[in-house]
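Hi there. Long-time user, first ticket. I'm pasting a complex I've been working with (about 225 residues overall). I'd like to know whether the download I got is complete or cut off, because the file seemed smaller than I expected. Thanks.
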Amino acid sequence: GQQVMQIPQYQHVQEGEDFTTYCNSSTTLSNIQWYKQRPGGHPVFLIQLVKSGEVKKQKRLTFQFGEAKKNSSLHITATQTTDVGTYFCAGSTNAGKSTFGDGTTLTVKP
Amino acid sequence: ETGVTQTPRHLVMGMTNKKSLKCEQHLGHNAMYWYKQSAKKPLELMFVYSLEERVENNSVPSRFSPECPNSSHLFLHLHTLQPEDSALYLCASSQEGGQRDTEAFFGQGTRLTVV
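Hi, the file is complete. Here it is re-exported in full:
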C-alpha cells in the first residue's frame, strides 16, 4: 500500500536557525497537504500543493512539491519559539484517502 | 473553534468499563475519520466513514466499535480496553468530491487513559 515517510523524526534548533522537513511517498501523489500540531493541540491544516514543482510561501514557511509528485518539503526560515510542534505531511492519490507521515517534531531553543 | 467537536476531552476508564467517544462536525462534510495518536504511532488511521458508510477499517481490534448515525456525528464505542489503548483519539472530517478529498479538519481529541 501507499507509504509516506517523513524525515527527520526530531529536529532541535536554536532560535533563528532554519529548519526543513522532508516527505517522501512510495507512489505518485495527486496532492500533498501539510499540517502543524502544537504541543497539547490537534493537527491544523497549513497548505495543500497540487501541481508538479509547485512552491508556495506563507511568511517564513516555504512548501515545495517535487517534479515527480512523490516528495515534498517544508522549510522554515529563522525559526521562532512559536514554530515548535510536530509537522505532518499527508499524501493523497487519485484512488484513495490521504496517508499521513509520522511527522517531524521541532523544538526551538530560545 | 475548528468546526469539529469531540467529547469528552479526557476520559479515564477501567478495563471492564464501556464508554463512548463522540464527535460532531458542523462543516457540512461528507466524510469522517477516527485516528489514534500515541508515542508509538503519531497518526494511525482507525476508521473512515464516507456518506455514513464505513469504507475503511485498518485492522482495528473489535473492542473498538465505530458508529456513524448521520453525516454530522461519529461515535467510537469502547469496551474491555487494555492499558496499551491509552492514547489521544482524534476525530476528523473532510469533504469528498471528484478525485481527491479536501483538507481534514481535526477535533481537539479525547485523551483516553485505561487503568
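A couple of notes from our side: Chain B is about 0% helix and 60% strand. Chain B touches chain A through 19 residues (CB under 8 Å).
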